[in-house]
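Bit of a strange request maybe. I'm writing a small parser for structure token strings and I need a real example to test against, not something I typed by hand. Could someone generate the tokens for this chain?
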Amino acid sequence: MSSSHLSILLLLVMVCEGVSQTSSKHSSPPRFTDEDIRQVLHDTVGVPPEFGADIRLTIVELGFVGPRMRRALLNEAYSLAGGAQERVALKRVDGGGPITGALNDVFQKGFDELSLRARVSEDLVTVDADRAQDLFRRIKLTSDEGSACEQEMVYDPSIYYSAMARLLASISASERRVRFLEDQIPQLVSTAQVASFVRVVIGSNLSLANQKVIAQRIAAQLSQITSNRRVFSSYYADVIPALTRLATLLPKTEQTSFLIQLRDWILASINDGVCQLQGGRIKHRDGTIQRFNPSRPSDIFNNELTALGRVDLAIDPSDVSASPLLPPAANDHYSSEYLSMFRSYHLLATDYGSANTEGRWQSELQKYTDAIDQWNEPLDRSQYSAYYIEKADILQQVLSIQQNATIVRTGMTQSEFSAIRRATSSRRTGDRDESPLHFLLELIDGATARDIYPDHHLLWFQPVLELLRSSYSEGEVDASCIASSNPVLRAYGALSRLLHSKGSNYI
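Reply from user aminoacidic:
Good idea to test on real output. This should exercise your parser:
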């Protein structure tokens, strides 16, 4: 059934059921109506599936609709999720730059097929727990794609396992909880899954006997986990302690067998090759800097064994046949233009509370905004994505500093600032809107963005996500998005206006 047909059915459900209403005797923002909900759903027709699914999930999660409508919206969201551009969520390996940082931010919200369907299943628990469990069981996890150490991002199924914990808690009978977990073990095919799954097991309140059964099944499954240098290197620091903690649930005789299987798996992964990870540093009070490097997997395992009193199973350096550490992840870097813009922003950000706010500071802010407007896309199209994210980030920061400076200078509240912004929405020269918000929306819907959008929905969406989360002049942002020719901006503008009417923000 098409998205448009499903939306029509949802509207019929709404008419029959009605939308739960919120009323107050006190002064408050306008509350949502049935028509508001209908308009938001209507605006999602034709948007990419991941955004249509997220909007439906958001409406449900904030309690805008009753049980029947919740069920209908969640079923549609589950169906739409199958068409998401991204199959699974990713997270950045190390510090990263503009592109990896932006993608990391959006993936944490859960716009990929796996995370969206997990979110649906979790939200459905309070309406129909059996249906929620059935939908969750249908979700197929994936093995890792790409194992090069230079890879900047890795598989991140954390939203899936967060939903699993919620679903498990909804099952009252212990034998059904065990069966639910056992059904998941064959899907344990990536190192990225292991620590999260073990945490669900340990937090499940199962009897020791049942935890023992699950631990044994997990140990047997370790040999089925896909060998992947990049993923193992990114997760071993969490996985090894999690699995050794699971071993403590077993009797001594079976604990030994488990630890031997774990040792064999760790050693095989080490000998397949470990990617170098970025170190860190700690600045002490006396100003000295202490640098440190990540612990090796064999060291972590051996430390865990020492705590268990099982040093006889320790991995010896002579057991390791692999070459020295393989290369680290390649990081995208910020451009010189961005770094220059950021330095200027930092100077403005540290000075807006001074006595010069109305004079020199305001003049410098306007010069800075004009310079951002003149920052054009690079000639090399391969650099478009970084330019888009960097310029959007700078404009977001200008919006924030403009708001903060006004509030500090005048002593007004956030709501008073928003009211003034709605009344005097921008400074104009002739017919040209020169507000930072206009420049940002112009960028989001401009030629560079349209070049990025077809193949990279989530990268394009990151500045939109940041704008929706910001506290900057809520009504002005909503109205500007709704007036856009871009269907995704219109849909999220309508959703954001609905959230604000309920005193909420998109998060």
